[in-house]
Amino acid sequence: MENKRLGSVFGPLAMVAGVSIGHFVASVNSNWQSPVISLGNRIIDYVPPPVKKLVINLFGLYDKVFLIGTILAVVFGLSLVVGRAYMSGKRGVAYAIIAAMSVAASWAALLDARSNLFSVVPAIISGGTTLYVLRWLSQQGSESVDSGVEISRRDVLKAVGVIGAVSIAATGAAKLFAQKASVQIERIKIALPKPLKYLPNPPVDPALTTPGLSPLFTPNEDFYRIDTSLSIPNVSTDDWQLEIVGMVDNPFTLSYQELLARPVFELDGTIACVSNEIGGDLVGNARWLGVRLDDLIREAGPSADADQVMGYSVDGFTAGFPVATLDGGDAMIAIGMNGETLPLAHGFPARIIVPGIYGYVSAVKWLTRIELTRFDIKHGYWISRGWSERAPVKTASRIDTPFSGDQLPVGTRAIAGVAWAMIRGISKVEVKIGDLPWREATLGPEIAKTTWRQWWIDWSPKKGNYTITVRATDGDGILQPQAYVAVDPNGAEGWHAINVNVV
What we know:
Layout: H1 2-27, H2 35-46, H3 49-59, H4 63-87, H5 91-110, H6 121-146, H7 153-181, H8 184-189, E1 241-246, E2 252-255, H9 256-260, E3 265-272, E4 283-292, H10 293-300, E5 308-313, E6 318-322, E7 332-337, E8 340-341, E9 351-353, E10 367-373, E11 396-401, E12 407-408, E13 413-420, E14 426-433, E15 439-440, E16 442-443, E17 453-459, E18 464-474, E19 496-502
Parallel strand pairs: 1-10, 12-19
Antiparallel strand pairs: 1-2, 3-4, 4-7, 5-6, 5-10, 7-8, 7-9, 11-13, 13-17, 14-15, 14-18, 16-17, 18-19
Helix pairs in contact: 1-4, 1-6, 1-7, 2-4, 2-5, 4-5, 5-6
């Protein structure tokens, strides 16, 4: 019994040491991934789309945290089995589990986007470290048990302290290496080129006087992030290049400096995730700076038979959209976001922005290649998983304030939110409170038809329960559909409604 209790401590300690050292080893090479990250990448690749949808709906921006937490929980459970088996004399079982975990992590590493044969090194070292630490701990425990002296709590705490210190040091060192590799300093030093013509300064933001209303421009640190990458790729501009290839007459390659030397323009644009549920927050608005994508495509000389522009990320993600979308649509290779160099989490050094279509078919971050191809030849990442090839952003509206379920005091307050129908713009927003007639809301400034539009009404309710509903009309005069449509395969539809109680 004593051995099993020790195993329940020693197994997790050994696994913590192994995972930490594996994480550290992975940080010394930009092409390597931590074993946990590699396993997470494979889960993202192979988990059924309905499961992905469920996780995103439940956890939103924290879906990756949930995935990593789940992997670590499974590793912890296995570590308990390993430790108890090893300390009970069933060492073959412990060896087999550690070997299976190392093999699984090695397989996952070999399938990473920038992998090579040496990418298995972190997984192998992680497994070896786990085994070594487990043997060392077991020797300490066995010596105490064999001598008839029960291992003391102090001895256990000492072991925990030593391994904890080593693990923390390894994790901290890995973070320092990662920060160095992430070229944050390099990014900060970049001087963005000036556009040929600046967009007008934004008007006074109505959100400043309407608490709870989304700001006109979403701050970079608050901008939603949805992608398939568990760890943010760190790409140095010294090594980065953009290829324009495929069904073109003149394929060419640009370095980062060559991209910056080209004419750039500004675009006020809202982008939305296709997974955004009615009333969801997977949408944001920014002022982007970049190079016109249609200029690059035109320079490459696309074949008349090419009907798809396919973008490739350094992490292996792909997304393709119709060539016809480029016609006058201000699609760009973005290098700047809200006045600063593109943040790492949002695609540095460069990403694609295509107004009016969902990101899953266009918004490739950490861009490295653009290929002219055909829809009947190649499919992007999400298309092969059952989502639609064509993905125009649907008209949507959202109530930002109050929140559903709020208890509000009697008195005058604002009902406010945002609405979007990129490319078409928003011409009207209406709000319905209970059984009262629809009220037309005041619209905020229209800085571009490619952005969302703020709206608000004043409300002075009496005590009671209220259902508040919002609907929008786009710039073509078409009312947002009322009937609910699920997010898959090409975006949700329906009116956003909330319930509040005035007390």
